[in-house]
Amino acid sequence: MLIRSGVPVSYHENGKIKKRRLRILDFDTPTNNYFLCVRELWIRGPVHRRRPDLIGFVNGLPLLFVECKRPDKNLRRAYDENIADYRDTIPHIFYFNAFLMLANGIEAKIGSITAQFEHFSDWKRLAEGEPGVVQMETLVKGTCTKANFLDIFENFILFDDSIGQTVKIVARNHQYLGVNAAFEAVQDREIRDGKLGVFWHTQGSGKSYSMALFAQKVRRKLGGDFTFLVLTDRQDLDNQIYKTFAGVGLADNDKDPCRAESGTALRDLLSQHKAFVFTLVQKFNQEITEGGEYSDRSNIIVMTDEAHRTQYGTLAKNMRDALPNASFIGFTGTPLFNNDEITRRVFGGYVSTYDFQRAIEDKATLPLYYDARGDKLNITSEGLNKRLAEAIAEAKSMMLMSPSSSRMS
What single DSSP character describes residue 337? Predict the structure, then answer.
């Protein structure tokens, strides 16, 4: 936090004590910083000395740590044989670390100092539309240019303590590209008429973390006066997303109430300019009349999870009427139907896509397998379609004959 936000200092000037926050890194103009990569630098630990392959310094801080192997060696060996040893013998080299890189000249992966090897990830694309290829060159270009490296360090690292111990999380390739696309949409929100887009990243790809990273970057880079209204349609989803935001330190309902249990509470929280407010779409259960808006602020961003389920009917209309100048972004783990014009009308088109097949190829989520068990259920396909058609026709004829059919139609 001190590196990202600056170090508070006191000093004397004209006989008075003044306080300022000194920035260690210039995130706004990356070229104003001093970058240095050192090969095989001896590091003295409490007992032993070690000579890591590459250490990347920015303004004197060791922010990048690279362990290299020969092209014929598996990256797993770099983790098992070297990283574990460095953690024990020279732990202080990682105090300022942004991320680790494992490389063999052909392949490369990045991860955090707390990550198991399985959580180190590839960096296969420099742009979302690219097919993707696993190679060291792509990862280096994507993460180690001056601008990208400082962007990752400032905006794409989270510390999650929701499981009882602190885990450092570095964004994966698809999260970095997707969040930056959504961030650009916020910058263009007036041109987009508040429709920031649909963020479709498949189930298991870290969508809740992407929401947190998106909100973190907007508040850091565009100003801390934004309010994010995190909206779901189920209590279990609301609990899950709140737990993620609380775990990474972005929200704490006990110290600073931010969860609206009613429409009245929601209106009150929005009037307090909170950083985050969590609620269900069901809380918009009152028709909004002219002058009865919850807030007319233009710096409210509504982040809706499972967007395609929450944008229909009176509740969604009430929400849009209650927040007439808000911007809307929809997060979903499943694609929109081709005829889903309502969701597009609220959010616009896709701002970022990461579909199931791509996630499988990137090993970001586990594949699904269909195991046909028709024999065990004693179902055969012979004549099945014909019997289904007959059953549907019979049901239709019974409905037409029923006295209540006119009311049902």
Answer: P
